[in-house]
C-alpha cells in the first residue's frame, strides 16, 4: 500500500531544519532530519538531505518563511460575498498602500470569513511577491520541488494545540524561536492582535559568555528538539538574563498590541490575562514559561501551550506543525505524530 511522504523545510539566517515523514494512516512517522546552524545552513542542510533522500516532483513539500520578511496589518474591508472577493479587495488596498501593482503583493488572511462577516476587522500577512518568488527559486535551485504550502513561522505551532483549545475564550499566545518572538491575542478562535519581536533564544545565549562552543551548540539543539539537557543547571543564569531582556517589555508589547488593534479596546488588556507559551521544544517552552510567570507574578496565568502531540519530540514544534499542514494537503484531518521506537 502506498504511503504518502511529506517533506518540511524551515530556514532562517540562524538555522535550517529539514525533515521527511511517512504518512501511515493517521500517523506521521519521522524518517529523516537534518539540523544545521549558521548563515549557510540552508545550502549545507540541502546537501545532506539529498545525500540520503530522493524527492519525487509530486511529493508533498511544505515550508515556512521568517516573519521578519512579512508585514502584519489589519485592513478594513467593505462587505463582500466570499473569501476570494475579500482577498481581491485586500490585495488592492495593500498594493496601493505600498505603491505596488496588485500582482506584486502576496497575502494571506489570518481570520475566518465567518468572523469577518460578523464585523471582525481582518488581520493579513503581507509579503512582496518578488520575495516569495526568489525564495521558491532558491529552494528549486537546491533540488526541492515547488512548495505545496508556504506558511509563516511560528503559526504552524497553533495547529498542534489540543483540540478545542484555540477555538474558545480569550488568551495570549507567546511563541519563541531562535531569533524572534511572537505575541498574539486570540479571541474565540480568531487572532485579533499580533506583535513581532526581533529577539529570541539567541539573545538569551548572548548572556552565557562563559559557556564553551560545544555547550552552546547543545543548548541550541535542545531549544529545537533533539537532545534534552537538564534545565535546572541553567535556571539561575537564564532567569536573570531573560528578566533583564523581557522584564518591562512584555507589558509594553501587550498594551501596544491591544490598543492598536481595531478589534479590541485599551481596557481589554485585563481580559487577556492567560498566556499560552511555546518555545520550539519542551526545554525552551519550560524556560520561557517559568520566566514569564515570574515577570507577570499573580496578574496572569502562564502555562505551556498544551499539545496534542505531547511535549517531547525530536523535532522543533514549528516543523511538527508544518508536517500537520502537509497532512492537510494530502487530505488527512486528524494526524498523530509518532516517535519511532
How many helical stretches? 9
- The CATH topology name of the domain at 162-306 reads Nucleotidyltransferase, domain 5
**Which stretches are poorly predicted, pLDDT < 50 over at least 5 residues?**
332-337
Percent of residues in beta strands:
25-35%
CATH superfamily label of the domain at 162-306: ATPase, nucleotide binding domain
Mean pLDDT reading: 87
Helix/strand-derived category reads alpha/beta
Shape: globular
The profile of the biggest β sheet is:
6 strands, mixed
What topology, given as strand order, has the largest sheet? 8-4-1-2-3-14
What is the helix/strand order? Answer: EEEHEEHEHEHEEEEHHHEHEHE
Q: What is the highest CATH level, the class of the domain at 162-306?
A: Alpha Beta
- Architecture (CATH level 2) name of the domain at 162-306: 2-Layer Sandwich
Helix content percent band: 25-40%
Number of strands: 14
Instruction: Compute the CA-based radius of gyration.
Output: 20 Å
Multimerization status: single chain
Amino acid at each position: 500500500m502506498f504511503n504518502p511522504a511529506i517533506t518540511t523545510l524551515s530556514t532562517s539566517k540562524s538555522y535550517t531544519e529539514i525533515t521527511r515523514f511517512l504518512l501511515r494512516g493517521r500517523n506521521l512517522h519521522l524518517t529523516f532530519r537534518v539540523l544545521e546552524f549558521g548563515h549557510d545552513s540552508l545550502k549545507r542542510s540541502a546537501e545532506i538531505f539529498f545525500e540520503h533522500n530522493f524527492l519525487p516532483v509530486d511529493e508533498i513539500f511544505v515550508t515556512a518563511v521568517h516573519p521578519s520578511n512579512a508585514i502584519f496589518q489589519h485592513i478594513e474591508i467593505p462587505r463582500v460575498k466570499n473569501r476570494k472577493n475579500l482577498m481581491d479587495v485586500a490585495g488592492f488596498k495593500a498594493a496601493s498602500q505600498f505603491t505596488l501593482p496588485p500582482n506584486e503583493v502576496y497575502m494571506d488572511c489570518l481570520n475566518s470569513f465567518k468572523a469577518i462577516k460578523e464585523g471582525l476587522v481582518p488581520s493579513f500577512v503581507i509579503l512582496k511577491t518578488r520575495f516569495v518568488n526568489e525564495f521558491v527559486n532558491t529552494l528549486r535551485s537546491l533540488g526541492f520541488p515547488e512548495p505545496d504550502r508556504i506558511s509563516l513561522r511560528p503559526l504552524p505551532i497553533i495547529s498542534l494545540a489540543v483540540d478545542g483549545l484555540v477555538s474558545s475564550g480569550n488568551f495570549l499566545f507567546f511563541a519563541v524561536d531562535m531569533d524572534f518572538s511572537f505575541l498574539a491575542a486570540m479571541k474565540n478562535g480568531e487572532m485579533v492582535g499580533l506583535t513581532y519581536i526581533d529577539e529570541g533564544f539567541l539573545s538569551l545565549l548572548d548572556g552565557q559568555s562563559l559557556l564553551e562552543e560545544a555547550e552552546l551548540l547543545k543548548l541550541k539543539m535542545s531549544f529545537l528538539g533533539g537532545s534534552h539537557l537538564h534545565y535546572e543547571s541553567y535556571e539561575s543564569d537564564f532567569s536573570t538574563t531573560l528578566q533583564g531582556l523581557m522584564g518591562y517589555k512584555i507589558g509594553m508589547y501587550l498594551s501596544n498590541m491591544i490598543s492598536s488593534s481595531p478589534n479590541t479596546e485599551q481596557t481589554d488588556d485585563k481580559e487577556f490575562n492567560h498566556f499560552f507559551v511555546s518555545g520550539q521544544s519542551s526545554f525552551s517552552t519550560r524556560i520561557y514559561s517559568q520566566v514569564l510567570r515570574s515577570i507577570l507574578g499573580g496578574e496572569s496565568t502562564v502555562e505551556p501551550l498544551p499539545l496534542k502531540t505531547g511535549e517531547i519530540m525530536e523535532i522543533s514544534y514549528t516543523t511538527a506543525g508544518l508536517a500537520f499542514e502537509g497532512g492537510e494537503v494530502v487530505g488527512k484531518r486528524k494526524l498523530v505524530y509518532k516517535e519511532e521506537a
